[in-house]
Amino acid sequence: MDALTLAIVAAVVVVLAIGAFVAFGLKKAVKKDKVLLLGCKGAGKTTLFLRLVHQLFNKKTTTSIEVNEASYQLNDDTTIRIVDIPGHPRLAENLLNEHAVEAQALVFIIDSAVFNKDVRQVAELLYTVLTHPSLVDIPVLLLCNKQDIVTAAKNRSVVAKLEKELTQLRTTARTSVGDTAGEDDQGPLELGDETTDAFKFEQLSNRIDFEETSLKDQSEKCQASDNIVLNWMKQVIA
Fold this sequence. Notes:
The chain is of the alpha/beta class. About 45% of the residues lie in helices and about 15% in strands.
């Protein structure tokens, strides 16, 4: 190997090494300080955001088409970013991808009053969360909201129906993966225990909690709901 060839090889090695070093540095520099608020349209994400960040308790909201983001002092030593992601199906997944890498926790809000009608849509969005490569290790709070409405589904019913829908979605995903076997991609991960036929939340390695809330106004009960979310954040965020 002549001197010119050696010089070229050395230059290529140096360039690759610098590229790897820079890539590692950028990856290491990502700060996970965001708590994402996610859910289908009308679930109460923006209402929760306004209550927590701006102490607005009776603010009427409309369906969001843009992300709401603000700093929040969780305690004396911890400041987080609370991110309200629009629930429109065409926006939610793309915006989730943008913020997922910086997520430290996620609150998934469910409109319990119409859950039985919208269970499939809720399950599809939740499936995206639970199989997202950047989110599989973070704690998730499933918030069954609007408990002040008489038709609201309770935690037990929500969990059972979501597990059934998620099982069906997982089966469909497994068939799809089988059809595309051999393709090199960074798509969704397997949901839960791949050796089982039925999905259960207990199969997940990350922390999953369920709570019932009402975020309607400034009543004592609704303020207690705010505390449920805040106390959960303080528990799961170091």
